[in-house]
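Hey, can you fold this one?
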Amino acid sequence: MKPYAIINQKVKAGIKLKEKLYSIPVNDAFDTDSECPLCLMKKTLEEHAIDFTMGPSYMEDEVRAETDKIGFCSHHVEKLYENQNRLGLSLMLKTHMDKIIKDLERLSGGIQLSSPSLFKKKTEPSGVKAYIDHLDESCYICNKINGTFNRYIDTIFTLYKNDSNFRNKFRQSKGFCTSHYGLLYEEVQRHLGGDKAKDFIKSLNAIYLNNIKRVREDLEWFIDKFDYRYVNESWKNSKDALPRSINKTNSVLK
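Sure. Predicted structure:
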């Protein structure tokens, strides 16, 4: 066999192995009794990313270089604080602050500030503002989550296209939160075409709408149970209707 053919074969084998590895957490999430398997996948990735960041890795040069550069969003710095590794978080924030000070001293030094003209439209932010905007939009934890989560989305479409067992699992699921329904709806054209795309959209629409209506009905009965007229009635399936509704509407797993 020619060398390039061997390399090509190894590359294909590596791709198949990665696809198999990604298919395990995707199938596991769809096997779970969840109102949104995608929310479950994302929460699991978040937990793993927090554990990784607060573990021994925070002392690794590569990790620290990245956290120094981009820092954390407000949501995830709270999660890191809750992790209880106060020394690890303090070390990361200290060197991140060192970099911010150094960068902003350079960007803000020696700039002559003048009043903007009343007739001149400001089209671009200053170097200082652009730098701060970039910091506000960046997060080491978010980056770790989103990289793998995007591969999970690709895997959902690959499995739906090629695996009849997964298609049945998908159709029998409890649907998705509104945000992840929109994500899957938007992504279908990038992954599927023709009849496969139409079939996916038809299934997706039915799954989302039927299940959000189901949760809405449970929530309505939960509300009714606070009326004295229904005090002796069964709760039916409504006791956890509020957290399930929060999941459907706001992508939050309680």
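The two ends are 55 Å apart (CA to CA). Let me know if you want another pass with a different chain boundary.
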